[in-house]
Amino acid sequence: MARTRAQFRPDAVVADSVMSAVYHRPGFTAPDGDIVFMGGAVRDPAPLLAEISGRPGNLPQGWQSMNVDLGPNGSRGACAQGPNSTGAVQPSCIWVTDDSFGHLVPFPAASGVPTMQELANLMKNMRPDLVH
């Protein structure tokens, strides 16, 4: 968790506001199906979306991204996926408002890792419960 927190740019995220939780998707035996959530306050939402938006040069080689339509609620979302340190494809999704963000990453496990589109759909469903 500390390594993930350290990846958030200090000009974008209020570091001491970041909270984390692990959610479990039904139908999987833990840790398969676990989703790590990190969220908190933002100083500037633009850098968070830029890092995952898929603009040329923003993503490592072999990664792909997509914007996620979160409806007319003022949130912007994006997901990306690519090989992690073990070579397995790892999706990641983020939503950003003018003052907060949420980041979802599946726990690396043998099975139960959703596709980028599945994680985007999960983000759409979870976000209303996690934004205050």
Write up what this structure looks like.
The radius of gyration is 14 Å and the shape is globular. The chain has a 6-stranded antiparallel β-sheet, sandwiched between helices. 22% of the residues lie in helices and 32% in strands. It is built from 3 helices and 6 strands. The chain is an alpha+beta fold.
Structural class: alpha+beta
Largest sheet, strands/sense/barrel: 6 strands, antiparallel
Give helix and strand order, one letter per element, not per position: HEEHEEEEH
- Helix count equals 3
Mean pLDDT comes to: 82
Strand sequence of the main sheet, in spatial order? 1-2-6-5-4-3
What distance separates the N and C termini? 23 Å
Number of strands: 6
State the helicity in percent bands.
Answer: 10-25%
Beta percentage is: 25-35%
What is the C-alpha radius of gyration, as a whole number of Å?
14 Å
Shape: globular
Poorly predicted regions are none
What are the key terms here?
6 strands; 6-stranded antiparallel β-sheet; 132 residues; 3 helices; globular; alpha+beta
Show the helix and strand layout.
Elements (H helix, E strand, L loop, with lengths): L1 H6 L11 E6 L9 E8 L3 H8 L11 E5 L7 E8 L5 E8 L3 E7 L9 H15 L2
Antiparallel strand pairs: 1-2, 2-6, 3-4, 4-5, 5-6
